[in-house]
Write a structure and sequence with these properties.
single chain; 67 residues; mainly alpha; 69% helix
């Protein structure tokens, strides 16, 4: 399970950071294109891990703690 989470982190972390720090607002389709995902084809656990990566980035960069 840890290996799966790490693969997702390696695949999406830099892309998520690029999206977060964009100066321009992105559309949903632009965001999906950058991530290279089709929302309907993601598994539930993939969505969950991507969400955790996003929250970890926010916590690390801005000190905001989510529980």
């Amino acid at each position: 399970m840890v290996k799966r989470k790490e693969k997702i982190r390696l695949k999406y972390e830099d892309k998520i950071k690029d999206i977060i720090y964009q100066k321009n607002n992105l559309s949903v389709s632009q965001t999906r294109n950058i991530l290279g995902i089709d929302h309907n084809k993601l598994r539930r656990w993939e969505k969950e891990y991507i969400t955790h990566i996003l929250l970890d980035i926010i916590e690390d960069e801005h000190g905001v703690k989510y529980t």
